[in-house]
Amino acid sequence: MRAGFPDFRLGSVLATSFTGTLSERHGDAVERIPTPQRLIDWLAEYGLAVDSCTPAQLDLARELRESIHAAATAAATQDALPAPAVQVINDRSVQGRAAAVLTPEGERRWRLSSPSRVEDALGVIAADAVSIVAGERDGRLALCASPTCRAAFFDTSQSRTRRWCDMNTCGNRQKKARFLANQRKDSGSPRC
Ligand SMILES: [Zn+2]
């Protein structure tokens, strides 16, 4: 973690982890990729290493992020997909030129057409969003139960009953809030 910047919440699903770089959208929003360098750092965490990023490319990334958030939210609530969001996702997907390659160990790696092509990395994220919004992958899109968060996340649990985007943050906070509410109830005087 770089000093002074909020840390990342790294999930296993690329597209919804990317939308998680802006958290608490309905509360005090936390921007986790406030600078081009932080986008570079985030991409590296997901095997999409780039060696540079311009402010314009960061804008492109944030536009894609909010478009994925809008489309995933609509999909989770079974509303019609917002056309402008779909357009942005499709544009980024079409303009990406990353290739999936196999390592000798049989793992997938992404190879960008050039190390400065943030657009290639965004294309991979956009394609990932297409696959989950289209229901191509095993799982269910849902919205975080925290009222200040409402992040779209991809539930791959067996029972498909996950309630929070992230157990360590939103999940814990909700549990704590419920615990405190119960304590207050228990200590309240019945005559008041
Ligand atoms: Zn959440």
From TrEMBL:
Gene3D superfamilies: Jann2411-like domain (1.10.3300.10). Pfam families: ABATE, zf-CGNR. InterPro entries: ABATE, ABATE_dom_sf, Znf_CGNR. Residues 140-181 form the Zinc finger CGNR domain. PANTHER family: BLL6575 PROTEIN. This is RNA-binding Zn ribbon-like protein. The lineage of its organism: Bacteria, Bacillati, Actinomycetota, Actinomycetes, Micrococcales.
